[in-house]
Specification:
With 226 residues, the chain is mainly β. It has two helices and eight strands. It has a single domain (2-216), classed as Beta Barrel (Porin), CATH 2.40.160.20.
Length: 226
């Protein structure tokens, strides 16, 4: 009787481990852009290159935690706002590279990883926190320092087979500074051009891309309980 109970408990643990599907590693490529004083909205000609690497641990079939390293190019030009008198006065452009490290929680809306599931895809939502830094040629640019960000967004996961998954993701990064585009309420220290903007409107940057991940399965033997 005791042996049967132990075997049943081991089988239950194995079933849970199989459902959790353990650890994933992956990476992807895509595009990035920023909004702020220079770029007010989405501009097709201001898209930059971006890439990411990540490690994910599946707590269950619907909840995961993910650590991500992101590299993104952001750029903008005042010429895309011809009706804005401030943009016409500044007549500036920028191009920067952002490096980000973040940790997020993901929630899958559908249990697409279940072996008997009739679907092999699921939309998901993620939110978390991170740190980012951008390169700069200006010594007074505080956005070149490490800054906190809040990443959040939506995506779609597609299970190709037992190990491989394909993902499509769009995420926004809320920042807490106004100099990612190197324009704020403070004049340019070298006095070569005015860099005035709205200091109450912090900059944002975004990532959209396609990723692929590999799942490592670790299912214990249900009879190895000694």
């Amino acid at each position: 009787m005791v042996k049967q109970i132990v075997v049943l408990a081991a089988l239950s643990m194995a079933s849970y481990a199989a459902k959790a599907q353990g650890l994933e590693i992956g990476g992807g490529l895509g595009t990035s852009f920023a909004t702020g004083d220079v770029t007010r909205g989405f501009e097709l000609n201001e898209l930059g290159f971006a890439g990411q690497l990540f490690v994910r641990y599946n707590l269950s079939n619907v909840v995961s935690v993910r650590g991500t390293g992101l590299f993104a190019q952001v750029k903008g030009d005042d010429s895309t706002n011809p009706i804005d008198p401030f943009a016409e006065l500044r007549d500036l452009n920028f191009q920067r590279f952002v490096i980000e490290a973040s940790a997020v929680i993901e929630y899958n809306f559908l249990d697409y990883k279940e072996r008997n599931s009739l679907i092999n895809w699921s939309p998901y939502f993620f939110i978390g926190g991170g740190l980012s830094a951008a390169n700069s040629r200006q010594s007074r640019d505080n956005s070149a320092r490490i800054q906190p960000v809040i990443p959040f967004g939506l995506g779609l996961k597609y299970r190709l087979n037992k190990q491989w998954n394909l993902e499509f993701e769009f995420g926004a990064r809320k920042t807490f500074y106004d100099q990612l585009d190197q324009v704020s309420s403070v004049a340019n220290p070298n006095k070569l051009a005015p860099r005035y903007g709205n200091e109450l409107d912090n900059d944002w940057y975004y990532f959209a891309g396609v990723s692929i991940s590999y799942t490592f399965y670790s299912v214990p033997c249900p009879f190895d309980y000694n």
